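Dig into what follows:

_____
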Amino acid sequence: MSAALRRGPRQGRVATAAVLAAGLVAVPLVHATSAAADQRGPAVGFMPPSTTLAAADPADVGLDPAPIEEAVAQVRAHEVPVGSAAYPLYPGAVGLMGYQGKVVRTDASGWAVAYGDEGVALPADERVPMREDTIVDLASVSKLFTSIAVVQLVQEGRVALDEPLATYVPEFAAGGKGEVTVRQLLTHTSGLVSWLPLWSAYPDPESRIAAVMAQPLDAPPGTRYLYSDLNLISLGVLVERLRGAPLDQVVADRITGPLGMTDTGYNPTAVERTAATEYQASPPRGVVRGEVHDENAWSLGGVAGHAGVFSTAGDLAILSQALLNGGRYGTARILSPASVRLMVTDLNGAFPGDAHGLGFELDQRWYMDAMSGPRTAGHTGYTGTSIVIDFDTHSFAILLTNRVHPSRDSGSINPARREWASGLAHAQGIEPRRGADAWFSGDENATTSTLTTSLDVPASGGRLAFDLYLDTEETDLLHLETSADGGTTWAPLPFTVRDRGPAEHPDGTASGSGTRRWAQARAQLPPGDLDLRWRVVTDPLYLGRGVLVDDVVARAPGSLLLDGEATPEAFRADGWRLVSR
């Protein structure tokens, strides 16, 4: 990160704006890796800006269709009520997967409209099926459009990230907010509360916006991460103030229009193609369809910085590809490559677990699952929507549902989000480091899997070497262990992993994600008749791409104890399996 971008409020502001306006690389997106060899994907960086989407079968672009079809089945399974539940998790869904400039899977299932007033199921002939071009209320995914509109102003030099918002919107200084910067609002580190009941506590749009401007801070700026609708409502005011036009017009003129996203905007007119959301008795709106579900956005006329955008999976695919192209799609450029890099670079290093760029969430395993990593950006929406864009592999997974139809109480949609993203991640596969296959620990939650072999190590001791691919949640541990009593008791075997430099694992355990590449592991073997095993334990939530072990070699002075490539039968696998990708 550049010195100007590391400084706090009021420092480096002009430099930041000038760098972005000049289209220079202000913050590096990633470090170079060998992702191309490991993931059948490209070297890290943007795709050619001329890339436009076309349909392709997964196998034609080197993907394994099986995990994708499994994800389709999993998403569809949530459209059926479970047990005594009154409603399914959601009545309908549209999912889209993109990889290397190709749309490799689109699936529409279930119902766009399935329930009427009071949440009563409609007769079959009155239901509306979900289609690939169904228009869905994006809810908080709308925040990305506001964020892009703000970054466009930064790129033009009209806004500086580390300038207080009050410089541009003076009334925002009320309540001690005079030092809150544009950057802090975009990264949810402003100190504002997460939400206010604007729709019920104030009589009209003017008083509701005034309430946001007057809201005092709940914490000093920059001292905590708290996701807040008020941050983006305030930035929406900034965009309108500097552009001299309503937010919906700005988004149409500068983002969706140039990109050809013809089905994306606020207050949709094609109501017959729009999915229904909640039945609301208070406020008395009935079954909400063609109007934004979020009550605060609704009370602001359907146009707000935090919610209000409706879109289709196909339109969001265009936006995703434009970002993967470095801000351009077709002949339209909405952002410079430097601006895109900054939007998807973690600026929240002081808040581990809450990685955030300018508007985009980063590396959030709770919905990105196996696609998560430091260069994976995305966002979710309360209505049951999500977008995940992986800049390492140039892929994206979009899932749109009407989770709140007819009730917001049907449960968390996060399992479906993770299933959809993981289907695309696992379809990409991982090339073995050596030979035709490698040992894979599996991709199931709440399991223990073991890979075991036996060694006769002489009194002089031995050395173990193996290649390791590790992409797991921090709490899903790989254990390297030995037993000298036939497997009755096990002791950890300390090892090192050489990646950018040797990493010590003195307790014989490791976890981690983000590198997505093979590394070399080494350990000293004690003398004796040993059982050696790799044990992976996963908890009930979140997975990554898993653990792979390849090219296992054990040596003693003057002798070869084990060549795993030559003798795969020397291993006893429980939950592990040999995979070719």
Summary: The radius of gyration is 26 Å. Residues 254 and 334 are 7 Å apart (CA to CA). The chain has 15 helices and 29 strands. Confidence is low (pLDDT under 50) at residues 1-44.
